[in-house]
Specification:
By secondary structure, the chain is α+β, with helices and mostly antiparallel strands. The chain has a single domain, classed as Muramoyl-pentapeptide Carboxypeptidase, domain 2 (2-Layer Sandwich). It is 41% helix and 11% strand. It has a five-stranded antiparallel beta sheet with strand order 1-2-3-5-4. β4 and β5 form a beta hairpin. The longest helix is centred in the first third of the chain and has 16 residues. It is globular. Keywords: Carboxypeptidase, Hydrolase, Protease. This is D-alanyl-D-alanine carboxypeptidase-like protein. Pfam families: VanY. One of its GO terms (molecular function) is carboxypeptidase activity.
């Protein structure tokens, strides 16, 4: 059954609020500066991402942002949803970091799609310092400038194995 007009209006208002906090209801191009999830990324990460996206476009591949910068409030909401979905904080930690530890909250992480963009980054990302960090999250990339010379570091199985999450 379709949503009623009032329900649609509440969802639209809620979506707009969460979008301001970094939600990306629909994937957006890496060049969209109107979307806070993109505009609030670390400038060096955004620059590397845009250079890679430009080169990938020459190969017929488009990068879309599924997630980027997030406010602490939005990250907390995602964490609560993950606890509900996975049944415990321990299991949720394999997928979602706390706001004080999340690289998304600091603007240092971006989630990329679709799968051909992730495949392109898997092959070429180190040339730009863009590295997949978690084996269970093939969409999650962070900037590691040393990767340009040394290649990307080994991946963690999931965020719960990342020492940054335990500090």
């Amino acid at each position: 059954m379709p949503y009623s007009e009032p329900a649609r209006a509440r969802w639209a208002a809620s979506s707009a609020v969460w979008r301001d906090h970094g939600a990306v209801p629909d994937p957006v191009p890496v060049f969209d500066d109107e979307i806070p999830a993109v505009a609030n990324l670390d400038p060096d990460l955004l620059d590397a991402l845009r250079r890679a996206a430009t080169d990938a476009a020459d190969d017929g591949v488009e990068f879309l942002v599924n997630g980027g910068w997030r406010s602490p409030e939005y990250q907390e909401q995602l964490l609560h949803e993950a606890v509900s979905k996975h049944g415990s904080a321990k299991e949720a930690a394999r997928w979602v970091a706390t706001p004080d530890k999340s690289a998304h909250v600091s603007g240092d992480a971006v989630d990329i799609g679709p799968s051909d963009a992730r495949a392109w980054l898997s092959k070429h990302g180190a040339e730009y310092g863009l590295c997949q960090i978690y084996r269970n999250e093939p969409w999650h990339y962070e900037l590691r400038p040393e990767a340009i010379e040394d290649g990307c570091p080994p991946m963690y199985a999931d965020p719960s194995h990342d020492p940054r999450m335990r500090q």
